[in-house]
Amino acid sequence: MTAFIFIGVLILLLLIYLIIAWSYFKLAVKRPFVEDMCTKEGIAKLKLTDHEEVLLAGRKQLDTTEYEKAEIKSFDGLTLRGRFYTFTGAKATVIFFHGYRSSPLIEFTASFNFYKNNNINVLLVHQRAHGESDGEYVTYGVKERRDVFSWIDFVKDRLGEDAPILLSGVSMGSATILMGAGLGYPKNVIGLIADCGFTSPYEIIKHVVKTHIKIPFRPLIYTVNFLCNKLAGFDLREYSTVEGIKNCDIPILFVHGNADDFVPPSMTKANFDAYQGPKQLLLVDGAGHGYSYLINKMEYQKKIEDFILKTLDENA
What we know:
The chain has helices at residues 2-29, 40-45, 52-64, 104-107, 109-117, 144-159, 172-180, 201-213, 220-232, 241-244, 265-274, 292-295, 297-314, and strands at 68-73, 79-85, 92-97, 120-125, 165-170, 189-195, 252-257, 279-284. It is α/β, with parallel strands linked by helices and 316 residues long. Strands 1-2-4-3-5-6-7-8 form an eight-stranded mixed beta sheet, sandwiched between helices. β7, α11 (265-274) and β8 form a beta-alpha-beta unit. α1 (2-29) packs across α9. It starts with a helix and ends with a helix.
């Protein structure tokens, strides 16, 4: 009887473990529901009421400025969508990649007007498995890095092979463009702006599980990674930003808020230290995850303006 009880307890524990692993896989990798936080209620929920006017005005600009509905096919057959804003006499185009469980219509509301006023075209991308784009699984930059090239081709098809392009990403979007560098960007990509990016899918999931969910990382991660391989077609250890930028020589502006408790600033510092090409680093005091632009708009704008002008001059 004791042996049967023991076996029963083991089976129950195994079942509980598998349920937890499956639940975390669904939470971390399955297509998320993304709530539109760029409303008065959403801004209050994010505790950003001090920035309400800027965010709502930015969203109004996004929705009232004329744009082309952008659409591409990914390397694996997904339809990816976005918005392409073009301005007469624009000197460059910036392609924005948003973060995990987010949207370009949330993350780039505050800075859109800055680029518009500086006569830079803006392509806002809905990453795979987010927003208006197709896809069932988020792969933390592993597959998304290849989507970057499809969006670059979209711009080149409309503006020409030599049209200057800047790539900008926040959080997972930052990891996406840094990983993409490992595939070799074309010569018209003149600069990257990497804001609060992580170093790899494995490291960010490890950090979140340990610090926010507060459950044992092992052996959970082995089962989650098994599910990632079998169902989502990628491995958590498959690639990293450090590998991506290893042989890159494109100027990169690294940005991170030093009060970020979701993606630790140490990850951007690791990327910055590993990069051997032209680089700059902006650490914003008091800024949480993805809030650097809001917290110190003047410093951020000055840094981006100088960075863009320098890259354009060097590629003139």
